[in-house]
Queue: 3 jobs
Job 1
Amino acid sequence: MQQLAEEADSLATSTGMVNELLMSGQASLSSLVGQRQRMRWINRKMLDMGNKLGLSNSTMRMIERRDATDAYLVFGGMVVTLLVIYFLYF
């Protein structure tokens, strides 16, 4: 009987931990969404300022291209990191 009570306690503790983990993940995701929205707003404002200051269209395109290249580098780095972790784990 005591083993069943210990099992129930362990299950309740595990459920609580999983719920905390889910809440933490949701908080992180909402934080990232907010950051993305702020970064888009900043990007828009920077482009507006560039246009007002008279930056040429070629310079603006170069900046946008650089942003795309940086995104590819970040995603490539993520993939490489995941592969390294995978190969080290197995």
Job 2
Amino acid sequence: PSKDAKDAAMEKSRSVVLNEATLEVVGADDLIAADSSTSDPYVHVLVYGEGRRVLVDRKSAVIKKTLSPTWNFTTPIPLDPKAPVVTAIVLSVYDKDMIGSDFLGTCTVDDADTLALYNHKHKTPLKL
């Protein structure tokens, strides 16, 4: 085989096919106190594909009585070549109550396809 054919074969053997990525939501700081001086926060994760198709819809555990929760919550994101690309990641934070939940804030990461494929840390303020 020619040098070009060997180089192409070597490059092909180094390629990696990803079937999923992992999104990790570490925590939040300085949340609003929904229960007098504290909150019981959890995060709701929505990952959207093309046409606003929901690819992931997951909730973290509730962390009791804190305004700076650490969830260390992970969820897989499917990366099937036949599936729609990731177009947005929406993180909404709520205070869990005995009946229902109070909205604390949200943030949206629009360039989510890049975040899903690479090890990337992103810190963004919640919008109320």
Job 3
Amino acid sequence: MATKRAVSLCWVTSPSTHTSALVEKILANKAAACVNVTKGAESNYVWEGEVKREKEDVLMIKTTKDRIKSIITLMEAHHPYDCPEVVSVDVSDGSEPYLDWVRDSVPTPENHYTKNWKSQVSSPLKA
């Protein structure tokens, strides 16, 4: 039996003015199956020696572990921050049909540009 690809959750924070464009880049590059956006989270942090408080959107990205580097590369190229937050954790358990949908929706880095990759993957939502 073949080993299944590891599924990961990845978080990125973004100013609301850039969120839609970043989500579009992630999905257009097939780096994730799904991106949830939580609008207006309050972020408190220290930057350049000063305490900052900002409203940011939080992107929760469902992807595979082998595509995290793709997301990091996209954020380094397109995110407006000098040091964007991109963190991930491996999913150790969950609904197997949903995890399979994530795996099926995200091509491996090697297959990312092949013409044979599925152009339509069915949604995990029931009709």
